[in-house]
C-alpha cells in the first residue's frame, strides 16, 4: 500500500493552502495512506479527513537544530513511507531531502520559483506578472510523485457543526455572518485600524461580525470593538483554533488581509475579500478560487515599488501608508455586493 508523507511545517496560511490538493488526492486515491508532518497547532485544519494521520514536529525541543532534523528523519523512516512530498522547501526540508534521496526514497519538493519571485519584488526592472498560485504548486508535487490530481475537480467540504453554541447563544443566526481578520504577521500587510473600525462599525449595523486575531496585542485591540459595537463577537473568546474554524466555515463572507484567515475561509467556499498592502496577489498567495474583484490592492501608480516582498517585511521609505489608498467605502461596497450574491449553505 502507498504511504505518502506530506511535509509542511509552517506558516499557518501555507499549511491551510494544502487542503484543496489533499481533498482531491484523498478522493481519487482513497487507498493511499497519508501522513501530514506539521506543527501540533495546525492539526485542526485536517479534522475533516477521517483516515489521515498527523505527525507532530517540535523544533523547539525534540527536533531542534541539525541533530533534531536527523532524529526527525529517523522517526519518519520508521513510518515506512513510499512517497514523500516536501511542500515547504526550506533549509530544514532540504537536509531531509538529501537524507531521503541518499536512502533512495521517492521524494519530490515544491518549486517556489524563487528567481521569478525576485523579479516581481525587485526595485528596478520589475517584471509584474502573475506567478502560479501556491495551491497549484502543491498539486504539481503530488503529480510528480505519480498521483495525478486536478484542482478543477475539487469539491468543497460542508460547513462544520458549531460546537461552541453556548458561547454564541446570544448571536442572531438569521443575520448574515461576516468574519473580519484585521491583522497579519507583518505591518506591511495590515489595513489601518482606524479605517477598519469604520468598516466594522458600518457592517455590524445589519449583520453579525466575528473578529479574528490572537495574542495580547491583537485581542486588546479587538476587545475595544467588541465592547463598542452591539453585533460584534471576538472569536478569541473561544480559545480554540478548531472552534474558530467551525465559525469560519459557516460565514457568509470573510474580510481579511493577505493572511491565514482568508485561506481558511476559502477552503470552505466562503467568499473572501482580501486587502493587499506591500504584497500582491500576483505572488501566488491569493485565497483558493477567490474572485479577482474581491482582491483590493494598494495603488501601484502612487507606489510603483509594490509589491516589495512575499511577506510584507520590506517597507521602503515613504511606503508606510500604502494601504490608505484602499478606500474603506470601497471595501464596504464590495462586502454588500458579495452578501447580496451569497447563497451559502450553513450548519448553524
What does the model show?
With 348 residues, this protein is of the alpha/beta class. The protein has two domains: 3-153, Glycogen Phosphorylase B (Rossmann fold, 3-Layer(aba) Sandwich); 177-341, Glycogen Phosphorylase B (Rossmann fold, 3-Layer(aba) Sandwich), CATH 3.40.50. The protein is built from eleven helices and eleven strands. Strands 8-7-6-9-10-11 form a six-stranded parallel β-sheet, with helices on both faces. Strands 3-2-1-4-5 form a five-stranded parallel β-sheet, sandwiched between helices. Helix 8 links the parallel strand 7 and strand 8 (232-234).
Labels describing this entry:
single chain, 348 residues, alpha/beta, Rossmann fold, 2 domains, 6-stranded parallel beta sheet, 5-stranded parallel beta sheet, 11 helices, 33% helix
CATH class wording of the largest domain? Alpha Beta
Quickly count the domains: 2
How much helix, percentage-wise, in residues? 25-40%
The share of residues in extended strands comes to: 5-15%
Q: Estimate the global geometry from the Cα principal axes.
A: globular
Question: In which order are the strands of the major sheet placed?
Answer: 8-7-6-9-10-11
Amino acid at each position: 500500500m502507498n504511504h505518502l508523507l506530506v511535509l509542511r511545517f509552517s506558516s499557518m496560511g501555507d499549511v491551510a493552502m494544502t487542503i484543496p490538493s489533499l481533498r482531491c488526492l484523498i478522493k481519487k486515491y482513497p487507498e493511499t495512506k497519508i501522513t501530514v508532518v506539521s506543527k501540533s497547532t495546525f492539526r485542526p485544519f485536517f479534522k475533516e479527513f477521517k483516515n489521515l494521520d498527523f505527525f507532530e514536529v517540535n523544533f523547539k525541543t525534540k527536533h531542534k537544530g541539525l541533530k533534531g532534523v536527523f532524529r526527525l528523519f529517523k522517526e519518519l523512516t520508521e513510518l515506512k513511507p513510499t512517497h514523500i512530498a516536501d511542500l515547504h522547501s526550506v533549509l530544514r526540508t532540504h537536509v531531509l531531502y538529501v537524507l531521503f534521496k541518499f536512502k533512495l526514497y521517492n521524494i519530490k519538493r515544491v518549486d517556489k520559483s524563487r528567481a521569478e519571485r525576485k523579479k516581481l519584488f525587485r526595485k528596478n526592472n520589475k517584471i509584474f506578472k502573475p506567478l502560479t498560485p501556491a495551491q497549484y504548486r502543491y498539486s504539481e508535487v503530488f503529480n510528480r510523485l505519480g498521483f495525478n490530481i486536478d484542482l478543477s475537480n475539487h469539491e468543497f467540504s460542508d460547513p462544520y457543526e458549531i460546537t461552541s453554541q453556548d458561547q454564541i447563544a446570544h448571536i442572531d443566526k438569521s443575520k448574515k455572518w461576516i468574519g473580519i481578520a484585521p491583522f497579519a504577521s507583518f505591518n506591511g500587510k495590515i489595513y489601518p485600524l482606524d479605517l477598519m473600525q469604520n468598516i466594522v462599525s458600518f457592517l455590524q449595523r445589519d449583520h453579525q461580525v466575528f473578529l479574528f486575531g490572537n495574542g495580547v496585542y491583537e485581542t486588546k485591540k479587538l476587545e475595544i470593538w467588541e465592547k463598542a459595537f452591539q453585533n460584534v463577537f471576538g472569536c478569541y473568546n473561544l480559545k480554540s483554533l478548531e472552534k474558530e474554524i467551525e465559525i469560519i466555515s459557516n460565514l457568509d463572507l470573510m474580510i481579511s488581509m493577505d493572511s491565514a484567515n482568508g485561506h481558511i475561509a476559502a477552503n470552505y467556499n466562503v467568499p473572501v475579500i482580501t486587502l493587499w498592502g506591500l504584497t500582491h496577489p500576483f505572488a501566488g498567495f491569493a485565497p483558493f478560487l477567490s474572485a479577482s474583484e474581491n482582491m483590493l490592492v494598494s495603488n501601484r501608480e502612487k507606489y510603483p515599488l509594490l509589491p516589495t516582498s512575499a511577506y510584507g517585511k520590506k517597507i521602503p521609505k515613504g511606503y508606510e501608508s500604502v494601504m490608505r489608498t484602499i478606500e474603506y467605502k470601497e471595501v464596504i461596497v464590495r462586502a454588500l455586493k458579495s452578501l447580496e450574491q451569497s447563497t451559502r449553505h450553513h450548519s448553524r
